[in-house]
Amino acid sequence: METNNNINIMPRIGDKAPAFNAVTTQGNISFPQDFKGKWVILFSHPADFTPVCTTEFMTFGKMAGEFESLNCALVGLSIDGLFSHIAWLRTIKEKIEYNGMKNIEIKFPLIEDITMEVANLYGMIQPGESQTKAVRAVFFIDPEGIIRTIMYYPASVGRNFDEIKRTLIALQTTDKFGVATPADWRPGDDVIVPPAGSCGAAKERMDGNEAGLKCYDWFFCTKPIAAEEINTGNR
């Protein structure tokens, strides 16, 4: 997205994911077209051969199967070149053992973005943090190519991968069941049912006439959804 002054700004939740073509460690991609029908986590990191980024890529690599089981593709990006990406990922696999992780092979695409075209398109360059490196951005994009959640971290703070996975499952759950998720929700916890559309429906809820509902007041009702009903990846 651009303003009239050609200054790139961050796309917003609910926007179509900006399209681009790119060279990656897994070949050329057209984004988001190549991933239609899947959820995508598009994330940026400041630089190859840096310690925090290494721990993050090892974690993403270790969890890649978990995201795949949720019908979610991972796509990484930094403003480094392709040969740097390849050398760094080889180093991770062959040399780095950290926090019980070793021999981690990164099979998802890592975008070469030496021109910073994609990083600027997604607002990943934050001048107050760095003029020449992307911050740790995370974009959750749904199977229709719509941005659903955005997370930003500074270069010095590694991401919470449990929260990234939890957010993905929460988004899929709200879509599938037409509900909302409360604070600190985890699969298997009660979900929030949207408020009733009429006084009569609200009274029926408060009287306990709707099966499975627990109401705290007319505007706040929850119901259980078993964890095994949720982790389907919307496939």
Structure description:
The protein contains 6 helices and 10 strands; from the N terminus they run βββαβαβαββαβαββα. The two termini are 30 Å apart. The strands form 3 sheets. Strands 5-4-3-6-7 form a 5-stranded mixed β-sheet, with helices on one face. It has a 3-stranded antiparallel β-sheet with strand order 8-10-9, with no helix packed on it. By secondary structure, it is of the alpha+beta class. Strand 3, helix 1 and strand 4 form a beta-alpha-beta unit. The longest helix is centred in the N-terminal third of the chain and has 19 residues.
Number of strands: 10
Give the mean pLDDT: 89
Structural class: alpha+beta
Order of helices and strands: EEEHEHEHEEHEHEEH
- Low-confidence segments: 1-6
General form: elongated
Number of helices: 6
Biggest β-sheet description: 5 strands, mixed
Task: Work out the radius of gyration.
Answer: 20 Å
Share of residues in helices: 25-40%
N-to-C span: 30 Å
The amount of beta strand, in percent, is 15-25%
How do the strands line up in the largest sheet? 5-4-3-6-7
Pfam families: 1-cysPrx_C, AhpC-TSA
Catalytic activity: a hydroperoxide + [thioredoxin]-dithiol = an alcohol + [thioredoxin]-disulfide + H2O
Function: Thiol-specific peroxidase that catalyzes the reduction of hydrogen peroxide and organic hydroperoxides to water and alcohols, respectively. Plays a role in cell protection against oxidative stress by detoxifying peroxides.
Organism: Candidatus Caccoplasma merdipullorum
